[in-house]
Amino acid sequence: MARSLKKGPYVDQNIIKKIKKFKPDAKTIIKTWARACTITPEMIGFTFGVHNGREFIPVQIAEEMVGHKLGEFSPTTKFGRHGGRMQRTLEQKEAEKETAKIKASKESSE
Questions:
Q1: What is one cellular component GO term in this UniProt entry (predicted)?
Q2: What pTM value is reported for the model?
């Protein structure tokens, strides 16, 4: 749900303090747990280490990210894969193609 326009975007005050200490395009990574913080134009060029619950994911802020939240660029779950018989057959076909390529490359090199 969008934040009220009269309230304005949520920007964590600790992040603003840290931005003022460093210069853009510096090699330093600013660690943060504030995933709900909105990306502002002042943040462009900085690298944030956004916590995903287990580790800090480095996020380089670009111009097209302005208006989004920091948490959008640090996924909290790892996609396993969709299961089922159909998926298994597709994976077997892929594996067969790979083995055929390897055999062909070995034969051509000999």
A1: small ribosomal subunit
A2: 0.70
